[in-house]
Protein backbone atom coordinates (compact mmCIF):
# COMPACT_ATOMS: atom_id res chain seq x y z
CA UNK A 1 0.00 0.00 0.00
CA UNK A 2 2.78 2.39 1.01
CA UNK A 3 4.58 1.52 -2.22
CA UNK A 4 1.58 2.49 -4.31
CA UNK A 5 1.28 5.76 -2.43
CA UNK A 6 4.93 6.59 -3.09
CA UNK A 7 4.40 5.90 -6.78
CA UNK A 8 1.52 8.33 -7.02
CA UNK A 9 3.52 10.95 -5.21
CA UNK A 10 6.44 10.58 -7.65
CA UNK A 11 4.13 10.89 -10.63
CA UNK A 12 2.67 14.09 -9.22
CA UNK A 13 6.10 15.75 -8.89
CA UNK A 14 6.17 19.02 -10.85
CA UNK A 15 7.96 19.14 -14.20
CA UNK A 16 11.53 20.30 -13.84
CA UNK A 17 14.23 21.61 -16.12
CA UNK A 18 16.94 20.33 -13.84
CA UNK A 19 19.77 18.76 -15.79
CA UNK A 20 20.00 15.00 -15.30
CA UNK A 21 23.16 13.62 -16.85
CA UNK A 22 22.94 10.04 -18.08
CA UNK A 23 23.88 7.44 -15.47
CA UNK A 24 24.95 10.16 -13.03
CA UNK A 25 26.68 8.83 -9.98
CA UNK A 26 27.12 5.29 -11.23
CA UNK A 27 30.38 3.69 -10.23
CA UNK A 28 31.85 0.24 -10.07
CA UNK A 29 34.89 -0.90 -8.14
CA UNK A 30 36.65 -4.09 -9.10
CA UNK A 31 40.01 -5.24 -7.78
CA UNK A 32 42.56 -3.27 -9.81
CA UNK A 33 40.22 -0.82 -11.51
CA UNK A 34 37.43 1.62 -10.77
CA UNK A 35 34.88 2.67 -13.41
CA UNK A 36 32.79 5.71 -12.61
CA UNK A 37 30.68 8.35 -14.31
CA UNK A 38 32.35 11.75 -14.30
CA UNK A 39 30.54 14.94 -13.33
CA UNK A 40 29.10 17.07 -16.17
CA UNK A 41 31.56 19.20 -18.12
CA UNK A 42 31.41 21.81 -20.87
CA UNK A 43 32.40 20.44 -24.26
CA UNK A 44 32.63 21.78 -27.78
CA UNK A 45 33.42 20.29 -31.13
CA UNK A 46 35.77 22.64 -32.94
CA UNK A 47 36.57 22.63 -36.65
CA UNK A 48 39.02 25.17 -38.00
CA UNK A 49 41.62 25.61 -40.75
CA UNK A 50 45.26 26.07 -39.86
CA UNK A 51 45.10 29.84 -40.39
CA UNK A 52 42.62 30.24 -37.52
CA UNK A 53 44.54 28.21 -34.95
CA UNK A 54 46.53 31.06 -33.44
CA UNK A 55 43.44 33.18 -32.78
CA UNK A 56 41.47 30.23 -31.40
CA UNK A 57 44.34 29.10 -29.18
CA UNK A 58 44.56 32.60 -27.74
CA UNK A 59 40.82 32.78 -27.08
CA UNK A 60 40.68 29.34 -25.49
CA UNK A 61 43.77 29.94 -23.37
CA UNK A 62 45.62 26.83 -24.53
CA UNK A 63 47.60 25.84 -27.60
CA UNK A 64 45.52 23.60 -29.86
CA UNK A 65 47.59 20.49 -30.56
CA UNK A 66 48.43 19.84 -34.22
CA UNK A 67 50.13 16.47 -33.82
CA UNK A 68 47.94 13.40 -34.30
CA UNK A 69 46.78 11.57 -31.14
CA UNK A 70 47.83 14.35 -28.75
CA UNK A 71 46.07 16.69 -26.36
CA UNK A 72 46.82 19.88 -24.44
CA UNK A 73 45.59 20.68 -20.94
CA UNK A 74 45.59 23.97 -19.06
CA UNK A 75 43.53 25.15 -16.07
CA UNK A 76 40.95 22.39 -16.23
CA UNK A 77 40.49 22.70 -19.98
CA UNK A 78 41.65 20.01 -22.39
CA UNK A 79 41.89 20.19 -26.17
CA UNK A 80 41.96 16.80 -27.90
CA UNK A 81 43.21 16.37 -31.46
CA UNK A 82 40.59 14.31 -33.29
CA UNK A 83 41.43 15.01 -36.91
CA UNK A 84 43.62 17.31 -39.04
CA UNK A 85 41.10 20.17 -38.57
CA UNK A 86 39.00 18.86 -35.71
CA UNK A 87 39.31 19.16 -31.94
CA UNK A 88 37.20 18.39 -28.92
CA UNK A 89 37.49 20.84 -26.05
CA UNK A 90 36.49 19.63 -22.59
CA UNK A 91 36.24 22.18 -19.78
CA UNK A 92 35.90 20.80 -16.28
CA UNK A 93 36.44 24.13 -14.52
CA UNK A 94 32.96 25.41 -15.32
CA UNK A 95 33.98 27.95 -17.97
CA UNK A 96 32.26 27.87 -21.33
CA UNK A 97 34.66 27.37 -24.27
CA UNK A 98 31.80 28.17 -26.65
CA UNK A 99 31.64 31.72 -25.30
CA UNK A 100 35.41 32.06 -25.72
CA UNK A 101 35.22 30.94 -29.35
CA UNK A 102 32.30 33.27 -30.09
CA UNK A 103 34.67 36.24 -29.79
CA UNK A 104 36.98 34.90 -32.49
CA UNK A 105 36.44 36.40 -35.95
CA UNK A 106 38.76 33.95 -37.72
CA UNK A 107 36.99 31.21 -39.68
CA UNK A 108 35.92 28.32 -37.46
CA UNK A 109 32.97 26.20 -36.43
CA UNK A 110 32.35 25.62 -32.73
CA UNK A 111 29.42 23.46 -31.71
CA UNK A 112 28.38 22.92 -28.10
CA UNK A 113 28.17 19.20 -27.33
CA UNK A 114 28.18 19.35 -23.52
CA UNK A 115 24.92 17.42 -23.23
CA UNK A 116 25.61 15.04 -26.09
CA UNK A 117 28.55 13.41 -24.36
CA UNK A 118 29.21 11.88 -20.99
CA UNK A 119 32.60 11.12 -19.50
CA UNK A 120 33.54 7.87 -17.80
CA UNK A 121 36.67 7.51 -15.72
CA UNK A 122 38.54 4.21 -15.83
CA UNK A 123 41.32 4.26 -13.26
CA UNK A 124 43.55 1.72 -11.60
CA UNK A 125 46.41 -0.62 -12.46
CA UNK A 126 44.11 -2.66 -14.73
CA UNK A 127 42.66 0.39 -16.53
CA UNK A 128 44.41 -0.30 -19.84
CA UNK A 129 43.30 -3.94 -19.81
CA UNK A 130 39.74 -2.84 -19.08
CA UNK A 131 39.59 -0.39 -22.00
CA UNK A 132 41.38 -2.87 -24.25
CA UNK A 133 38.57 -5.36 -23.72
CA UNK A 134 36.58 -3.44 -26.32
CA UNK A 135 39.13 -1.08 -27.87
CA UNK A 136 41.54 -2.53 -30.43
CA UNK A 137 44.21 0.17 -30.08
CA UNK A 138 47.64 -0.42 -28.60
CA UNK A 139 47.35 1.17 -25.14
CA UNK A 140 50.90 0.49 -23.96
CA UNK A 141 52.61 3.59 -22.58
CA UNK A 142 54.98 3.66 -25.59
CA UNK A 143 52.16 3.78 -28.13
CA UNK A 144 49.58 5.67 -26.07
CA UNK A 145 51.46 7.87 -23.57
CA UNK A 146 49.93 10.07 -20.90
CA UNK A 147 48.11 12.90 -22.69
CA UNK A 148 47.43 10.83 -25.80
CA UNK A 149 43.91 11.19 -27.14
CA UNK A 150 42.10 9.51 -29.96
CA UNK A 151 38.67 8.85 -31.34
CA UNK A 152 38.30 5.09 -31.54
CA UNK A 153 35.78 2.36 -30.86
CA UNK A 154 34.80 0.39 -27.79
CA UNK A 155 32.85 -2.68 -28.74
CA UNK A 156 30.13 -1.39 -31.04
CA UNK A 157 30.24 2.20 -29.84
CA UNK A 158 32.43 5.08 -30.89
CA UNK A 159 34.35 6.70 -28.05
CA UNK A 160 36.97 9.37 -27.54
CA UNK A 161 39.75 8.08 -25.36
CA UNK A 162 42.11 10.29 -23.34
CA UNK A 163 44.90 9.00 -21.14
CA UNK A 164 45.07 11.29 -18.12
CA UNK A 165 47.63 9.25 -16.19
CA UNK A 166 49.67 6.09 -16.67
CA UNK A 167 46.83 4.13 -15.07
CA UNK A 168 43.81 6.35 -15.75
CA UNK A 169 41.67 6.99 -18.83
CA UNK A 170 38.78 9.28 -19.62
CA UNK A 171 36.27 7.65 -21.95
CA UNK A 172 33.91 10.07 -23.70
CA UNK A 173 30.86 8.64 -25.41
CA UNK A 174 27.46 9.82 -26.62
CA UNK A 175 24.96 9.81 -23.76
CA UNK A 176 22.63 7.45 -25.61
CA UNK A 177 25.48 4.92 -25.76
CA UNK A 178 26.50 5.48 -22.15
CA UNK A 179 24.59 2.52 -20.72
CA UNK A 180 26.22 0.18 -23.23
CA UNK A 181 29.69 1.66 -22.72
CA UNK A 182 29.44 1.70 -18.92
CA UNK A 183 28.13 -1.86 -18.79
CA UNK A 184 30.82 -3.11 -21.16
CA UNK A 185 33.52 -1.41 -19.08
CA UNK A 186 32.02 -2.78 -15.86
CA UNK A 187 32.01 -6.33 -17.18
CA UNK A 188 35.54 -5.84 -18.46
CA UNK A 189 36.67 -4.45 -15.11
CA UNK A 190 35.67 -7.70 -13.43
CA UNK A 191 37.57 -9.71 -16.03
CA UNK A 192 40.61 -7.44 -16.11
CA UNK A 193 41.38 -8.16 -12.49
CA UNK A 194 41.87 -11.86 -13.25
CA UNK B 1 43.28 -8.10 -37.20
CA UNK B 2 44.74 -6.02 -40.02
CA UNK B 3 46.67 -2.89 -39.20
CA UNK B 4 46.08 -0.08 -41.67
CA UNK B 5 48.30 2.97 -41.84
CA UNK B 6 46.29 6.19 -41.78
CA UNK B 7 48.23 8.90 -43.65
CA UNK B 8 46.59 11.60 -41.48
CA UNK B 9 47.12 9.92 -38.09
CA UNK B 10 50.58 8.89 -39.35
CA UNK B 11 50.44 5.49 -37.73
CA UNK B 12 49.00 2.02 -38.08
CA UNK B 13 45.56 1.55 -36.60
CA UNK B 14 43.35 -1.53 -36.21
CA UNK B 15 41.06 -2.24 -39.15
CA UNK B 16 37.90 -1.90 -37.00
CA UNK B 17 38.38 1.88 -37.10
CA UNK B 18 38.22 1.93 -40.91
CA UNK B 19 35.59 1.60 -43.58
CA UNK B 20 36.02 0.84 -47.27
CA UNK B 21 34.64 3.49 -49.61
CA UNK B 22 34.96 1.88 -53.04
CA UNK B 23 37.38 2.31 -55.91
CA UNK B 24 39.67 5.34 -55.96
CA UNK B 25 40.65 7.73 -58.75
CA UNK B 26 37.24 7.83 -60.41
CA UNK B 27 36.96 11.31 -61.89
CA UNK B 28 33.49 12.81 -61.92
CA UNK B 29 32.59 14.10 -65.40
CA UNK B 30 32.94 17.88 -65.63
CA UNK B 31 29.68 18.22 -67.57
CA UNK B 32 27.49 15.40 -66.34
CA UNK B 33 24.39 16.61 -68.20
CA UNK B 34 26.11 16.15 -71.56
CA UNK B 35 27.27 12.60 -70.74
CA UNK B 36 25.89 9.84 -72.94
CA UNK B 37 24.07 7.05 -71.11
CA UNK B 38 26.87 4.63 -71.88
CA UNK B 39 29.54 6.95 -70.51
CA UNK B 40 27.46 7.64 -67.45
CA UNK B 41 26.98 3.95 -66.85
CA UNK B 42 30.75 3.43 -67.07
CA UNK B 43 31.41 6.26 -64.63
CA UNK B 44 28.64 5.38 -62.21
CA UNK B 45 28.41 1.61 -62.14
CA UNK B 46 31.34 -0.09 -63.82
CA UNK B 47 34.27 -0.86 -61.53
CA UNK B 48 37.55 -2.60 -62.31
CA UNK B 49 37.25 -5.28 -59.59
CA UNK B 50 40.67 -6.73 -60.41
CA UNK B 51 42.26 -9.84 -59.02
CA UNK B 52 45.45 -8.38 -57.59
CA UNK B 53 46.41 -4.79 -56.89
CA UNK B 54 43.48 -2.42 -56.44
CA UNK B 55 43.38 1.31 -55.65
CA UNK B 56 40.67 2.04 -53.12
CA UNK B 57 39.25 4.84 -51.03
CA UNK B 58 39.14 4.13 -47.34
CA UNK B 59 37.83 6.18 -44.49
CA UNK B 60 39.25 6.31 -40.98
CA UNK B 61 35.70 6.72 -39.75
CA UNK B 62 36.25 5.87 -36.08
CA UNK B 63 39.48 7.88 -35.94
CA UNK B 64 40.30 11.13 -37.69
CA UNK B 65 37.27 10.58 -39.99
CA UNK B 66 39.34 11.42 -43.08
CA UNK B 67 39.09 9.73 -46.47
CA UNK B 68 42.36 8.50 -47.95
CA UNK B 69 43.52 6.17 -50.69
CA UNK B 70 44.99 2.74 -50.24
CA UNK B 71 46.67 0.22 -52.53
CA UNK B 72 45.60 -3.28 -51.60
CA UNK B 73 46.13 -6.72 -53.03
CA UNK B 74 42.77 -8.46 -53.34
CA UNK B 75 44.42 -11.90 -53.37
CA UNK B 76 46.50 -11.59 -50.19
CA UNK B 77 44.40 -8.81 -48.60
CA UNK B 78 47.69 -7.04 -47.91
CA UNK B 79 47.83 -3.25 -47.87
CA UNK B 80 50.74 -2.23 -50.09
CA UNK B 81 50.61 1.45 -49.14
CA UNK B 82 48.25 4.29 -48.24
CA UNK B 83 48.35 7.95 -49.25
CA UNK B 84 46.31 11.07 -48.69
CA UNK B 85 43.19 11.82 -50.70
CA UNK B 86 43.89 14.08 -53.66
CA UNK B 87 47.40 12.80 -54.18
CA UNK B 88 48.10 11.19 -57.57
CA UNK B 89 48.28 7.45 -58.05
CA UNK B 90 51.77 6.36 -56.96
CA UNK B 91 53.93 5.72 -60.02
CA UNK B 92 55.88 2.94 -58.35
CA UNK B 93 54.65 0.70 -55.59
CA UNK B 94 57.02 -0.22 -52.77
CA UNK B 95 58.20 -3.79 -53.10
CA UNK B 96 56.98 -4.10 -56.71
CA UNK B 97 59.21 -6.26 -58.86
CA UNK B 98 58.27 -4.60 -62.15
From TrEMBL, chain B:
A Gene Ontology MF term for this entry?
A: sarcosine oxidase activity
Which one Pfam family would you cite for this protein?
SoxD
GO annotation (BP), single: tetrahydrofolate metabolic process
Q: In which domain of life is the source organism classified? A: Bacteria
**What's in the keyword line of the UniProt record?**
Oxidoreductase
- Enumerate the InterPro entries for this protein: SoxD (IPR006279), SoxD_sf (IPR038561)
- What Gene3D superfamilies does the database record attribute to this sequence? Folate-binding superfamily
Q: What is its EC number?
A: 1.5.3.1
EC primary class: oxidoreductase
This protein's name: Sarcosine oxidase subunit delta
Amino acid sequence: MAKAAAKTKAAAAPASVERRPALAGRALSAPGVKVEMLPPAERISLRAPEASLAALSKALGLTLPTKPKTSATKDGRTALWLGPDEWMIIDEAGNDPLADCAKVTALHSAVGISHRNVGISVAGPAAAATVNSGCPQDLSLEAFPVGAASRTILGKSEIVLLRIAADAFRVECWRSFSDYVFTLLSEAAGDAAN
Amino acid sequence: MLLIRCPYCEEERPELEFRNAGEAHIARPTNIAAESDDDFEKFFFIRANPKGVIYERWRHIHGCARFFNAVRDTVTDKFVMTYKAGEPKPAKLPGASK
